[in-house]
Amino acid sequence: MVEKRGLICCDLDGTLLGPDKQVSKASRQALADAAAAGFVCAVSSGRHPFNIFELMDGLELPPTCVCLSGAATFVDGILIDTIPLGLSAVRAAIAVAANEAAYVSVGGADFNASCGRVSRGKESSAPAFSRYDEVTSYEELEDYASKRAGRLLKLAMHAKDQAQYDRLRAELSKVDGVRCARSDVNWIDVTAASCTKAEGIRVLANHFGLGKSKVAVLGDDENDIEAIAEAGLDIAMGNAIPAVKEAASMVVQDNIHDGAANGIRAAISALT
Fold first, then answer.
1. Which CATH superfamily is domain 6-81+196-271 in?
2. How far apart are CA 248 and CA 265, in angstroms?
């Protein structure tokens, strides 16, 4: 394996992706320059591998990524680590969603199914979303999950507004064996209690033989806080929540003004 100069991990929503859910020209160029300089450019996201692989292919980068908020880690598209979520916890979380008639999805490394509707805007036309299963009832989703016990990695829930979000978080906090974190506006990621993006980033760094001082992380939301603490260079987006900015040693511009591109270039300079 060719020695790498460092590892640069970027969150997607609110970080590498702009409000239009696209990667800007400046960020694309910064990633290309980092890869050409010998850095591993990885995505660290709550999203499913189907979606992340498609995006990274569009960026002409190998699918090296931390997916499902740390529950699945891939190198060049090969799964190297998982942190499973227990079936009893998934059943309890689905019951919480059912009580609120909220959108909920259950995913593993090679499957994803949802119940309920959520608007994804223009990105809903992306081919990756055609690979997602949809069921018509919460009972059917529970049956879907039961048939995949042992392979369940993440449950995601979407609230229609802040009031429902608060109710969902309060009820999910009563479920044993899980960790809840916000991944985007009104989105809640539910994973195993030991699962964070930091764990996946640590797996990637160890795989490439890189110490903490050679790792940079860019993020903006609650599920990035532990990951930022894992980095030698920790970067918060200008649009990040206050807790992320407080945890980071550097704050760049927001995701409207190419903050990710500036963060990536700062990482190239700092880790060289």
1. HAD superfamily/HAD-like (3.40.50.1000)
2. 16
Tens digits of residue pLDDT in 170-204? 999 999 999 999 998 899 999 999 999 999 999 99
pTM of the full predicted structure? 0.92
Taking a C-beta distance cutoff of 8 angstroms, is the pair 90, 130 a contact? no
Torsion sign (Cα): 240, 24, 33, 52? positive
Domain 87-192 has CATH 1.10.630.10: no
CA 91 from centroid of its chain's CA atoms: 22
Task: Say what percent of the chain tops pLDDT 90.
Answer: 90
Q: What whole-number distance in Å separates Cα of residue 211 and Cα of residue 224?
A: 19
Q: What is the DSSP letter of 21?
A: S
DSSP 97-146: HHHHT-EEEEEETTEEEEES----GGGGGSGGGGGSEE-SSHHHHHHHHH
Query: Alpha-carbon distance 67 to 72, whole Å?
Result: 5
